[in-house]
Amino acid sequence: MAGIQIRQTGEGSLRISEMKMRKAAVKENIKKIIMPLMLAVVLLCHPVSIFAEDTYYLTWEEYCAANGITDSYTYNQAVDGMEQAMDAAESIYASGDAETTLEIIKAVKNSYWGGSGLKVAMQKQLPSASKKTAEADFTSCNSIVRNGGSA
Fold this sequence. Notes:
With 151 residues, the chain is mainly alpha-helical. Helices cover 70% and strands 0% of the residues. The radius of gyration is 18 Å and the shape is globular.
């Protein structure tokens, strides 16, 4: 593996290097997955109508069909679809349509997060506190929309 240095000092050095690599990989996964979700929460807390109406797909299946994605896909593609849908939710919320916004958030959680395999993959990679944060972000989005913009 790249980045692992084996030293003459024994097995402990190898384990420490592997742990550092795993920690770096988890941080990278958090940046790719959790940060867009947190951004969505921030955007819903402070609605600003600067975005043009976005094209989005309510479900992961619709997104795949529209983008020619078949059996082979990357999690980045799933995140891209989530971001498009959440950006659209922000715009729709800013226009005053809370009901549609809630439908989009629910669909993103169930279809993109759950249906694309992203949730399972992240549960294997992230520490338990981060797993709970990801689920809590969806709950926060719902609460913010239901409470008219305040958590």
